[in-house]
Design brief:
The complex is a heterodimer of chains A (282) and B (336).
Chain A (H helix, E strand, L loop, with lengths): L1 H31 L6 H17 L3 H23 L8 H23 L13 E4 L2 E4 H23 L1 H11 L1 H6 L4 H23 L9 H16 L4 H19 L4 H18 L8
Antiparallel strand pairs in A: 1-2
Helix pairs in contact in A: 1-5, 1-6, 1-8, 1-9, 1-10, 2-3, 2-4, 2-8, 2-9, 3-8, 5-6, 6-8, 9-10, 9-11, 10-11
Chain B lengths: L9 H8 L1 H17 L5 H27 L7 H18 L1 H28 L5 H21 L1 H4 L5 E2 L5 E2 L2 E2 L3 H24 L1 H11 L1 H6 L4 H27 L1 E2 L6 H14 L5 H20 L3 H16 L4 H12 L6
Antiparallel strand pairs in B: 1-4, 2-3
Helix pairs in contact in B: 1-8, 2-8, 3-8, 3-11, 3-12, 3-13, 4-5, 4-11, 5-11, 9-11, 12-13, 12-14
Chain lengths: 282, 336
């Protein structure tokens, strides 16, 4: 019983992180049909923002703010400098953003060294849930992620930017012809997607050893979240991250983490064979 | 209704269509051959490695260049071939071991490509989706290579891989391994070039231009793409086996993302779809890499990253087509 609760909560932790990383990816891909291979680097940026904040004594909240700011700014710059020019050349966009990703990893390595960094969790101790002790910070992480995701989902429904965004995802030409400034929508949503990935990195920072290459794993996983879940809908992101995160935690309980990740991604490929549109159709 | 075959194929067709590329390739191969006795130990091994990686780049160009589908995990096939040779060849030893190792190094990547390609290609996964899924495969493969210590030797890899032995002759001296790599490259260049110039290549080009139209002409496009991927994987696996046999060591980096990225760079630098371009690109980029690495090894991934961005914006079709365009401009704007 207590094992089951731990597995479920571990699955919820991983699902929350994947949900946030996948969200940015899904919005960017759904909007612009561009696969941003540098998306994982925003997770790394967020995690290192936490390291910087910790070293400077800014604390957890300071780290979150710094991660959000750097993530959003980085997203704006990437969109403005590179992605904007490659909307109609998807393969070139993949190559260019991958180049950015490689360069960024190396820059992070030059700045922070090759060794792994760690940051302490802002709240220590464990909470007892149905007789099982579970780290309090992980519960906070799940709560914060759900809050952020729900907030963005409401913003998609209620704000004018959300309306523009959904219109552009549905039909770009039509959205343009009714006067929506697609270039502006692209920039802002790219910045938001990158900032959310950076927040995910900041949130996960106390749980992992922070390396410059940390982004690649999240990148591969969150692409599967989007592919498995279905492109262009928040429900798809939710379903996809639950699928990937849930299975990964379940299998990792019995097998090594690398093997479980391999099995999950292979299962995802098999799933895609039978449901190419994803679990949730937009 | 089966589609009518087009063209006669074979060498004749190749020389009629792609004469300039084939001539460039043969001239360069001959140059290397003539220069080989004068190279020192270091340069001999460097040119040999470039020939092996050139073969790898050729395999990617056959798939990416001809079908338009970019595999971002091509090092998986190269690495699986290398591991297969390193594991199988020592079991029997001698000529039999080498042949069995080569056979395994070609067969295993073909099977892997067949299984993965079946699930992806027949599900209609194309374009950037195909690219991203193959990228994830590279991530999986690297993790497996590192964590499956009992088979792969983990991070340390496998050392003491036996050199290729054929009928009592051991390809061990740098010069003999250079000839081995160069000979294999020339042979497979012709195999791939003849296929590309003939019926198979035309079907693949048709699929790249418009898959729906190719389907309506009666072609099973998913099956054609799968065949191309399997052939490409087999050649990549052979290149991997040659690398394992000549360098004597196999490490997880051989299935890794950086190698998958580098091979794309070699193809892009040389010119995608030209077959000879990627081979030339490999030689040029690897030479450049030696220069950079002599300054600082850590600098190389940074250079690759920035190089990608620059290439995409300045010469998206690669250097060979770019040089061709410059050449035509200089000679008075004649277009062939």
């Amino acid at each position: 019983m207590s094992d089951l609760i731990v597995i479920l909560l571990n699955a919820a932790t991983l699902t929350s992180i994947l949900m946030l990383v996948g969200l940015g990816l899904a919005i960017i891909f759904g909007l612009m049909r561009v696969l941003n291979l540098a998306h994982g680097e925003f997770v790394a940026i967020g995690a290192f923002a936490m390291v910087v904040a910790h070293d400077a004594g800014l604390g957890f909240i300071g780290g979150l703010v710094l991660a959000t700011a750097v993530g959003a700014l980085g997203g704006l710059l990437l969109e403005w400098g590179i992605v904007r020019h490659l909307y109609h050349r998807p393969i070139q966009a993949i190559l260019a953003t991958w180049g950015v990703s490689l360069a960024f990893q190396q820059l992070l390595q030059l700045a922070f060294g090759t060794g792994a960094r760690t940051v302490p969790a802002p709240i220590q101790g464990a909470v007892e849930i149905m007789g099982t002790a579970y780290p309090a910070y992980r519960l906070l992480l799940i709560a914060l992620s759900l809050l952020l995701f729900a907030g963005l989902a409401i913003a998609m429904r209620r704000t004018s930017l959300g309306l523009d965004l959904r219109a552009v995802i549905q039909n770009r030409e039509m959205a343009e012809s009714v006067g929506i400034n697609t270039a502006r929508t692209f920039s802002i949503s790219f910045a938001i997607g990158s900032a959310v990935a950076a927040i995910a990195g900041a949130l996960v920072a106390p749980l992992v050893s922070i390396l410059p290459q940390i982004g690649v794993n999240y990148l591969a996983n969150s692409f599967f979240v989007v592919i498995v879940g279905g492109v262009g809908s928040l429900g798809g992101v939710l379903a996809g991250s639950a699928f990937i995160g849930g299975l990964d935690s379940l299998i990792a309980y019995q097998l090594s983490p690398s093997l479980s990740r391999a099995i999950v991604l292979l299962l995802a490929i098999i799933l895609v064979r039978f449901r190419p549109q994803g679990l949730v159709k937009p | 209704m089966s589609p009518r075959k087009t063209g006669s194929g074979g060498l004749g067709e190749l020389f009629r269509k792609d004469r300039s590329h084939t001539v460039i390739f043969l001239v360069l191969a001959a140059l290397v051959l003539v220069a080989s006795p004068y190279l020192d130990y270091y340069n001999t091994t460097a040119v040999r490695d470039a020939a092996i990686f050139g073969l790898f780049a050729l395999s990617l160009d056959y798939f990416w260049g001809k079908t338009g589908q970019l595999s971002f995990g091509h090092a998986v096939f190269f690495g699986v071939g290398a591991y297969a040779y390193a594991l199988v060849a020592p079991v029997l030893g001698g000529t039999a071991g080498s042949l069995a190792g080569l056979g395994a190094a070609v067969a295993l990547p073909v099977v892997v490509a067949g299984v993965i390609g079946y699930f992806l290609l027949f599900a209609g996964i194309r374009g950037d989706f195909f690219t991203i899924v193959t990228l994830a495969l590279g991530v999986i493969a690297q993790q497996l290579a590192i964590s499956w210590v009992a088979v792969t030797g983990g991070d340390a890899g496998l050392v003491g891989v036996p050199p290729l032995t054929l009928g009592g002759f051991v390809f061990f001296s740098p010069t003999s391994t250079l000839y081995l790599a160069l000979g294999t490259l020339v042979l497979l260049y012709f195999v791939v070039a003849i296929l590309s110039a003939g019926h198979t290549g035309k079907v693949l080009t048709a699929i790249q231009c418009n898959e729906t139209r190719a389907q309506s002409l009666g072609y099973d496009t998913s099956a054609e793409l799968l065949k191309a991927l399997m052939l490409s994987a087999g050649i990549a696996g052979l290149a991997g086996a040659l690398y394992a046999a000549t360098s004597g060591i196999v490490v997880p980096d051989l299935v890794g993302l950086l190698l998958s990225t580098e091979v794309i760079m070699w193809v892009v630098v040389g010119g995608r779809g030209t077959l000879v371009g990627p081979v030339v690109g490999t030689f040029l980029v690897m030479r450049f890499q030696q220069e950079i690495s002599s300054v600082s090894a850590a600098l190389w991934p940074l250079v690759v990253g920035v190089g990608f961005v620059i290439l995409v914006f300045t010469a998206p079709n690669g250097l060979l087509p770019w040089l061709g365009r410059m050449g035509r401009r200089l000679t008075g704007g004649r277009t062939p």
